[in-house]
Amino acid sequence: MKKSKTATLLRMPMRKGRPIVSVESRILFLRQQRIILDSDLAELYGVSVRQLNQQIKRNLERFPPDFIFQLTAKELNSLRSQIVISKRRGGRRYLPHAFTEHGAIMAATVLNSRRAAQMSIFVVRAFVRLREMLASNRQLASKIDELENRLETHDEAIQELFQAIRELMIPPERPRRKIGFQLPPARRGV
To answer: Tens of pLDDT along 59-116?
Structure first.
């Protein structure tokens, strides 16, 4: 008799009612794409950074350049100023790797740990949520631009309307009567 498999709802690891690790806060924007650093990914998957990087090196054929790349020193310094990353003393000796959404999923497959498989679902959901938020922000930005354009055209029309009203408010110039005797037009010789 076959054992029936039951689906279990995965939950984010919690501490005092709050997630231990916020996946969305670990996703950064670098080189025009959303990435997650190897140290953050290793923490999410419950392995050491060294172990994660060893598995990546052993399975390089699974990680094309659009899945993973190594940060430059300039990019690392830029990240240090934005988030807290330790300097060389007791920290890393090598530049960190950055994983794209697909690279993070592939890393979970090469790690072969249960936690990595479970957490990869949360990582994927976080990337999807960020993508949806960016799309909604783009839609909102386009709506605001559309409203601004409408207001500009309305402003121009209102300005033209005020100008026309001002022109109507100016009393028409009546021909002034000249002082003194004037010959009738027939006698003037005109």
So the answer is: 888 888 888 998 888 888 877 766 655 555 556 678 888 998 888 888 888 887 777 7
Nearest CA-CA partner of 66 in 105, 93, 27, 39: 105
Q: Which residues pair with 15 in a beta bridge?
A: 18
Rounded to whole angstroms, the Cα distance separating 150 from 100 reads 39
Cα separation values, 104 from 75, 100, 115, Å: 20, 6, 13
pLDDT at 188 (0 to 100): 67
Q: Are 12 and 122 in contact (CB under 8 A)?
A: yes
Cβ–Cβ < 8 Å for 56, 96: no
Residues 6+ apart with CB under 8 A from 109: 62, 120
What confidence score (pLDDT) does residue 82 get? 66
The tens digit of pLDDT for each residue in 114-157 reads: 777 677 777 777 778 877 887 777 777 777 777 777 777 777 77
Residue with tokens 């009567």: 177
Residue 106: both structure tokens together: 């592939």
